[in-house]
């Protein structure tokens, strides 16, 4: 890698909130972020841009992270690109599957900025260069602004998904409910609402039981709806 060239990182995740979060994390560094929302598109973009590193989510609909990782490691033009798996489920089986498929490292969501930057620097063998906002106060303000932007995006997305979520609850569509819970869990801490992370983690566990208690799941989803309403109300107060 040319030391003077801009580092390129491909982020593959189906959550636009996570994509925005990671863009924000690398905003102050000499890094070009390319994003993709699924594994198939991620492979195409990897071939096109030849990134220096790939950040890859595991749980994505249709073509998941493990499948993409397996393909990447089979292609001569991509197999030497290091991959960091980022996942909301870091159970031993998931970690083992990711490492076995070729991941250099597995990081748990919600992602912590300092740990992520450190992992990227360690794998690339070089320090990332701060280009802007060297002042710690400015960085703190940027983090707060990013969290506010993520809250707005989360509320907007939820409003779009609420009808389909209610329908999924009525029809007991496990996949739809599990995907929403997974995505909401991974952003709860990032937007300053750890209780959202806690409740959606509980929903994921309930959905993984042999006999699903749909009554409890509906109660938990009502709690999620109430938290989203609180976030929305807080945004209105903040904007005033």
How would you describe the overall organization of this protein?
- With 240 residues, this protein is of the alpha/beta class.
- Helices cover 60% and strands 11% of the residues.
- It has a 5-stranded parallel β-sheet, with helices on both faces.
- The radius of gyration is 19 Å and the shape is globular.
- The model has no long low-confidence stretch (mean pLDDT 86).
Instruction: Give, in order, the helices and strands.
Output: EHEHEHEHEHHHHH
Total count of domains: 2
Proportion of residues in helical segments = 55-70%
**Sheet with the most strands?**
5 strands, parallel
Instruction: Give me the side-by-side strand order of the main sheet.
Output: 2-1-3-4-5
CATH superfamily heading of the largest domain: Response regulator
Structure described in brief:
The chain is α/β, with parallel strands linked by helices.
Q: Which terms would index this structure?
A:
single chain; 240 residues; alpha/beta; Rossmann fold; Four Helix Bundle (Hemerythrin (Met), subunit A); five-stranded parallel beta sheet; 9 helices; 5 strands; globular
């Amino acid at each position: 890698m040319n030391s003077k060239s801009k580092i390129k990182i491909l982020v593959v995740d189906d959550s636009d909130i996570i994509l925005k979060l990671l863009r924000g994390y690398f905003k102050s560094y000499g890094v070009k972020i390319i994003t993709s929302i699924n594994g198939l598109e991620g492979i195409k973009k990897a071939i096109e841009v030849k990134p220096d590193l790939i950040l890859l989510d595991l749980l994505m609909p249709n073509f998941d992270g493990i499948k993409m990782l397996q393909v990447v490691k089979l292609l001569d033009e991509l197999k030497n690109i290091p991959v960091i798996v980022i996942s909301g489920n870091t159970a031993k089986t998931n970690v083992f599957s990711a490492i076995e498929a070729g991941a250099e490292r597995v990081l748990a969501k919600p992602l912590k900025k300092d740990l992520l930057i450190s992992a990227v620097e360690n794998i690339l063998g070089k320090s990332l260069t701060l280009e802007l906002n060297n002042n710690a106060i400015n960085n703190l303000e940027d983090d707060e602004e990013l969290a506010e932007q993520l809250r707005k995006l989360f509320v907007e997305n939820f409003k779009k998904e609420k009808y389909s979520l209610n329908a999924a609850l009525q029809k007991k569509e496990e996949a739809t409910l599990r995907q929403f819970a997974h995505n909401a869990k991974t952003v709860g801490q990032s937007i300053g609402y750890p209780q959202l992370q806690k409740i959606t983690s509980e929903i994921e566990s309930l959905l993984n039981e042999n006999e699903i208690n749909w009554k409890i799941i509906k109660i938990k989803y009502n709690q999620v709806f109430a938290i989203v309403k609180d976030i929305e109300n807080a945004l209105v107060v903040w904007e005033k």
